Amino acid sequence: MDKAQLREFLDRKAAQYNRPAFIPEDPIAVPHQYREREDQEIAGFLTATIAWGRRPRIVASGHRMMALLDGAPAEFVRTHQPSDLQRLERFVHRTFQPADFRYFLSALQRLYREGDGLRGAFQGKDAGSAIIHFREAFFQAPHPRRTQKHVSDPRKNSACKRLNMFLRWMVRQDRQGVDLGLWDHLQPHQLSLPLDVHSARVARRLGLLQRRTTDWKAVREVDAALRRLDSQDPVRYDFALFGLGIFEAF
Questions:
Q1: Which helix (H) or strand (E) holds 137?
Q2: What residues contact residue 232 under an 8 Å CB cut-off, 6+ apart?
Protein backbone atom coordinates (compact mmCIF):
# COMPACT_ATOMS: atom_id res chain seq x y z
CA MET A 1 0.00 0.00 0.00
CA ASP A 2 1.14 3.54 -0.68
CA LYS A 3 0.84 6.22 2.02
CA ALA A 4 -2.69 7.28 1.05
CA GLN A 5 -3.93 3.68 0.94
CA LEU A 6 -2.28 2.88 4.27
CA ARG A 7 -3.84 5.93 5.93
CA GLU A 8 -7.28 5.05 4.54
CA PHE A 9 -6.94 1.45 5.74
CA LEU A 10 -5.80 2.40 9.23
CA ASP A 11 -8.41 5.17 9.50
CA ARG A 12 -11.11 2.61 8.72
CA LYS A 13 -9.76 0.07 11.22
CA ALA A 14 -9.30 2.69 13.95
CA ALA A 15 -12.93 3.77 13.51
CA GLN A 16 -14.04 0.14 13.62
CA TYR A 17 -12.51 -0.49 17.05
CA ASN A 18 -12.49 2.98 18.61
CA ARG A 19 -16.13 2.93 19.72
CA PRO A 20 -18.06 2.36 22.96
CA ALA A 21 -18.59 -1.34 22.25
CA PHE A 22 -14.82 -1.72 22.77
CA ILE A 23 -15.04 -0.67 26.45
CA PRO A 24 -16.70 -3.52 28.42
CA GLU A 25 -14.13 -6.21 27.56
CA ASP A 26 -11.08 -3.93 27.74
CA PRO A 27 -9.13 -2.87 30.86
CA ILE A 28 -10.34 0.68 30.31
CA ALA A 29 -13.72 -0.55 31.58
CA VAL A 30 -12.38 -0.30 35.14
CA PRO A 31 -11.76 3.49 35.23
CA HIS A 32 -14.90 4.03 33.14
CA GLN A 33 -17.05 2.97 36.09
CA TYR A 34 -16.12 6.21 37.89
CA ARG A 35 -16.97 9.84 37.19
CA GLU A 36 -14.49 11.84 39.28
CA ARG A 37 -11.08 12.57 37.80
CA GLU A 38 -8.99 11.22 40.67
CA ASP A 39 -11.01 8.01 40.87
CA GLN A 40 -10.57 7.48 37.14
CA GLU A 41 -6.86 8.15 37.06
CA ILE A 42 -6.07 5.98 40.09
CA ALA A 43 -8.29 3.14 38.82
CA GLY A 44 -6.72 3.54 35.38
CA PHE A 45 -3.15 3.52 36.68
CA LEU A 46 -3.61 0.46 38.87
CA THR A 47 -5.42 -1.45 36.13
CA ALA A 48 -2.87 -0.50 33.48
CA THR A 49 -0.11 -1.70 35.81
CA ILE A 50 -1.47 -5.26 35.76
CA ALA A 51 -2.47 -5.21 32.08
CA TRP A 52 -0.63 -8.23 30.78
CA GLY A 53 -2.11 -11.62 30.03
CA ARG A 54 -5.66 -12.36 28.92
CA ARG A 55 -7.95 -9.33 28.80
CA PRO A 56 -10.88 -10.92 30.72
CA ARG A 57 -8.54 -11.77 33.58
CA ILE A 58 -7.08 -8.25 33.58
CA VAL A 59 -10.55 -6.69 33.76
CA ALA A 60 -11.59 -9.06 36.54
CA SER A 61 -8.43 -8.31 38.51
CA GLY A 62 -8.91 -4.58 38.01
CA HIS A 63 -12.41 -4.79 39.47
CA ARG A 64 -11.05 -6.86 42.37
CA MET A 65 -8.52 -4.14 43.07
CA MET A 66 -11.27 -1.54 43.21
CA ALA A 67 -13.34 -3.70 45.57
CA LEU A 68 -10.35 -3.93 47.93
CA LEU A 69 -10.27 -0.12 47.88
CA ASP A 70 -13.93 -0.03 48.99
CA GLY A 71 -15.02 0.99 45.49
CA ALA A 72 -13.64 4.49 46.17
CA PRO A 73 -10.00 4.50 45.01
CA ALA A 74 -9.27 8.22 45.50
CA GLU A 75 -10.68 8.32 49.00
CA PHE A 76 -8.87 5.13 49.96
CA VAL A 77 -5.56 6.40 48.59
CA ARG A 78 -5.83 9.69 50.46
CA THR A 79 -7.08 8.38 53.81
CA HIS A 80 -5.88 4.81 54.30
CA GLN A 81 -3.81 3.83 57.32
CA PRO A 82 -1.11 1.14 57.26
CA SER A 83 -3.51 -1.28 58.97
CA ASP A 84 -5.95 -0.88 56.07
CA LEU A 85 -3.41 -2.48 53.72
CA GLN A 86 -3.62 -5.86 55.41
CA ARG A 87 -6.59 -6.72 53.18
CA LEU A 88 -4.29 -6.60 50.14
CA GLU A 89 -2.82 -9.97 51.13
CA ARG A 90 -5.70 -11.49 49.19
CA PHE A 91 -4.66 -9.91 45.88
CA VAL A 92 -2.26 -11.43 43.34
CA HIS A 93 -2.19 -10.88 39.59
CA ARG A 94 0.58 -12.85 37.91
CA THR A 95 3.81 -11.33 39.30
CA PHE A 96 2.08 -8.33 40.94
CA GLN A 97 2.13 -9.34 44.59
CA PRO A 98 0.69 -7.86 47.83
CA ALA A 99 4.04 -6.18 48.62
CA ASP A 100 3.85 -4.36 45.28
CA PHE A 101 0.24 -3.33 45.84
CA ARG A 102 1.06 -1.98 49.30
CA TYR A 103 3.91 0.15 47.98
CA PHE A 104 1.82 1.42 45.07
CA LEU A 105 -0.87 2.67 47.44
CA SER A 106 1.58 4.29 49.83
CA ALA A 107 3.39 5.99 46.93
CA LEU A 108 0.10 7.20 45.48
CA GLN A 109 -0.92 8.56 48.89
CA ARG A 110 2.28 10.61 49.01
CA LEU A 111 1.77 11.94 45.48
CA TYR A 112 -1.81 13.03 46.20
CA ARG A 113 -1.04 14.50 49.62
CA GLU A 114 2.03 16.42 48.50
CA GLY A 115 1.02 17.50 45.00
CA ASP A 116 -1.36 16.97 42.10
CA GLY A 117 -1.20 13.20 42.26
CA LEU A 118 -0.61 11.22 39.10
CA ARG A 119 -1.25 14.21 36.87
CA GLY A 120 1.46 16.20 38.58
CA ALA A 121 3.95 13.33 38.46
CA PHE A 122 3.73 12.79 34.68
CA GLN A 123 5.56 15.88 33.43
CA GLY A 124 7.67 16.17 30.30
CA LYS A 125 7.91 17.22 26.70
CA ASP A 126 6.80 13.80 25.46
CA ALA A 127 5.67 10.41 26.76
CA GLY A 128 9.19 9.15 27.38
CA SER A 129 10.29 12.08 29.53
CA ALA A 130 6.94 12.09 31.37
CA ILE A 131 7.37 8.41 32.25
CA ILE A 132 10.92 9.03 33.49
CA HIS A 133 9.76 11.97 35.63
CA PHE A 134 6.93 9.87 37.06
CA ARG A 135 9.18 6.93 37.82
CA GLU A 136 11.60 9.10 39.75
CA ALA A 137 8.77 10.67 41.77
CA PHE A 138 7.06 7.34 42.39
CA PHE A 139 10.12 5.59 43.81
CA GLN A 140 11.40 8.37 46.08
CA ALA A 141 10.47 6.46 49.23
CA PRO A 142 12.12 3.18 50.31
CA HIS A 143 10.54 0.34 48.36
CA PRO A 144 10.94 -3.35 47.58
CA ARG A 145 13.44 -3.71 44.77
CA ARG A 146 11.11 -6.18 43.08
CA THR A 147 8.42 -3.50 42.75
CA GLN A 148 10.49 -1.47 40.28
CA LYS A 149 9.81 -3.98 37.52
CA HIS A 150 6.13 -2.97 37.54
CA VAL A 151 6.96 0.58 36.39
CA SER A 152 8.83 0.34 33.10
CA ASP A 153 11.72 2.63 32.20
CA PRO A 154 12.44 3.86 28.65
CA ARG A 155 16.04 4.51 29.75
CA LYS A 156 16.38 0.72 29.99
CA ASN A 157 14.90 0.43 26.48
CA SER A 158 11.56 -0.95 27.71
CA ALA A 159 8.65 -0.40 25.33
CA CYS A 160 6.63 0.84 28.36
CA LYS A 161 3.44 -0.56 26.84
CA ARG A 162 1.29 -0.30 29.96
CA LEU A 163 2.36 3.23 30.88
CA ASN A 164 1.87 4.42 27.31
CA MET A 165 -1.59 2.86 27.35
CA PHE A 166 -2.38 4.66 30.61
CA LEU A 167 -1.20 7.96 29.11
CA ARG A 168 -3.40 7.36 26.07
CA TRP A 169 -6.39 6.89 28.38
CA MET A 170 -5.60 10.05 30.34
CA VAL A 171 -4.61 12.42 27.55
CA ARG A 172 -6.31 11.53 24.31
CA GLN A 173 -9.46 13.54 23.60
CA ASP A 174 -11.69 10.83 22.17
CA ARG A 175 -14.91 11.86 20.45
CA GLN A 176 -16.09 8.26 20.66
CA GLY A 177 -15.91 8.22 24.47
CA VAL A 178 -13.36 5.43 24.86
CA ASP A 179 -10.24 7.26 26.04
CA LEU A 180 -10.94 9.48 29.04
CA GLY A 181 -9.08 12.68 28.08
CA LEU A 182 -8.67 13.91 31.67
CA TRP A 183 -5.33 15.70 31.33
CA ASP A 184 -4.48 18.71 29.18
CA HIS A 185 -0.88 19.37 30.25
CA LEU A 186 0.15 16.75 27.68
CA GLN A 187 -1.24 16.70 24.15
CA PRO A 188 -2.12 13.69 21.96
CA HIS A 189 0.73 14.39 19.54
CA GLN A 190 3.21 13.94 22.44
CA LEU A 191 2.03 10.40 23.20
CA SER A 192 3.71 7.16 22.19
CA LEU A 193 2.14 3.98 20.92
CA PRO A 194 1.45 1.26 23.54
CA LEU A 195 3.50 -1.22 21.55
CA ASP A 196 3.27 -4.92 22.35
CA VAL A 197 4.02 -8.12 20.46
CA HIS A 198 0.65 -8.04 18.67
CA SER A 199 0.69 -4.41 17.51
CA ALA A 200 4.39 -4.71 16.65
CA ARG A 201 3.69 -7.71 14.42
CA VAL A 202 0.99 -5.78 12.57
CA ALA A 203 3.21 -2.68 12.30
CA ARG A 204 5.95 -4.74 10.70
CA ARG A 205 3.57 -6.31 8.22
CA LEU A 206 2.34 -2.85 7.23
CA GLY A 207 5.85 -1.46 6.84
CA LEU A 208 5.54 0.89 9.81
CA LEU A 209 8.29 -0.84 11.76
CA GLN A 210 11.53 -2.49 10.69
CA ARG A 211 13.15 -3.14 14.07
CA ARG A 212 12.77 -6.76 15.14
CA THR A 213 12.91 -6.18 18.90
CA THR A 214 9.82 -4.75 20.58
CA ASP A 215 11.53 -2.12 22.72
CA TRP A 216 11.70 1.67 23.19
CA LYS A 217 13.68 2.10 19.98
CA ALA A 218 10.88 0.30 18.16
CA VAL A 219 8.33 2.58 19.84
CA ARG A 220 10.19 5.64 18.58
CA GLU A 221 10.35 4.18 15.07
CA VAL A 222 6.65 3.37 14.84
CA ASP A 223 5.75 6.71 16.48
CA ALA A 224 7.57 8.52 13.68
CA ALA A 225 5.76 6.46 11.05
CA LEU A 226 2.33 7.09 12.58
CA ARG A 227 2.99 10.83 12.94
CA ARG A 228 3.52 10.94 9.19
CA LEU A 229 -0.06 9.67 8.84
CA ASP A 230 -1.58 11.87 11.56
CA SER A 231 0.65 14.48 13.19
CA GLN A 232 -1.93 15.53 15.79
CA ASP A 233 -3.34 12.23 17.06
CA PRO A 234 -1.02 9.41 15.95
CA VAL A 235 -1.87 7.01 18.80
CA ARG A 236 -5.47 6.70 17.63
CA TYR A 237 -3.99 4.09 15.32
CA ASP A 238 -3.39 1.94 18.41
CA PHE A 239 -7.01 0.84 17.99
CA ALA A 240 -6.30 -0.25 14.42
CA LEU A 241 -3.08 -2.13 15.17
CA PHE A 242 -4.54 -3.71 18.31
CA GLY A 243 -7.75 -4.75 16.57
CA LEU A 244 -5.93 -6.19 13.58
CA GLY A 245 -3.55 -8.11 15.83
CA ILE A 246 -5.99 -9.45 18.44
CA PHE A 247 -9.28 -9.83 16.63
CA GLU A 248 -8.22 -10.40 13.02
CA ALA A 249 -4.88 -12.22 13.47
CA PHE A 250 -3.52 -9.93 10.75
A1: helix 127-138
A2: 188, 189
